[in-house]
Amino acid sequence: MSVYQDVFDQALKRREEGRQNFINENKENRKKCREMSDEMAIRLANDGEIYRQYLDKQNTFSHYTPNNVLLIMAQKPDATRIGSYQYWREHHASIKKEERENPILILEPGEKYTRQDHSVGTYYNTKKNYDISQTNANWKPKQETIYDMDKLVECIATISPVPITQVDPEKLPAGTGALYDPSTDSIKLHNQLDNGTTIFQCVTREMAHALMAQGDPQYNRDIHGLKALSASYILCKRYGVDIKAYNFDGADNLFPDMDAAQIKQELSIIKHTTQEISRRMDRELRHLTPQRQTEVR
Q1: Which residues of 251-280 are buried (b: 16+ CB within 10 A; e: fewer)?
Q2: In whole angstroms, what is the distance from residue 155 CA to residue 214 CA?
Q3: What is the pLDDT of residues 89-143, one digit of tens each?
Q4: How would residue 173 be classed by pLDDT, with cut points 50, 70 and 90?
Q5: How many CB atoms lie within 10 A of CB 198?
Q6: CA nearest 210: which of 231, 235, 194?
Q7: Are 232 and 201 in contact (CB under 8 A)?
């Protein structure tokens, strides 16, 4: 036996212990993440103000899943920009010493696996992130695009997933600016509206309905009303359109008789619907007049 056998045996043991510790920590963190996101989902379902905060945070972290947005809210509700240790290092910043033990945990998809019923699932791993406020990074004001309202109206008219037809106001329910009609798979727009903000708000809501309906003539807008309204709210936030007309404050029981998993599914539909409209808008806006930009301080 080599005189160095013990050295290699100890190194192998430490390696295995490190691997097992990582597996145990990851398992515990996954459990913690599931509990935190479930709790936050139930909270927002019963508090309109928290729900509005969620929509704002989903807009800020538009590339993150609803589950991870819930996790960010649960751990660092004032977060504005997060990244891993490596991310901040690549951006020439370091984590503040006092913040190193306060990471923001999120979940990222890992390897695929096959269940007993032959369906394919995905393992999720926890990832430690830190908000910019937890680093020594120098804050640089983001450039916010200022969109011309006429261009926004022109844009939604062009990219609507269904035809938009202007009609006399008596052909719409009282007080309604626009209405998706599942029987014709089209949007009816009040022909006397001349306020771009109101048009954008009404039409984006109905575009959300149209996308969720997927041409189903039996589509029930009452069931999906909150999701369409929420998608429209996020789009207004994203493109700088006034949001005073949206009021979630004081609302409760937003997702009646739903558990945390079902609530997250509803939030996912909102995200995907918003994302699809936004994708179409961004592509069309690139063809229109370049927009002015201003610093957000």
Answers
A1: eeebbeebebeebbebbebbbebbebbbeb
A2: 21
A3: 999 999 999 999 999 999 998 777 777 787 777 778 899 999 999 999 987 767 7
A4: very high
A5: 16
A6: 231
A7: yes
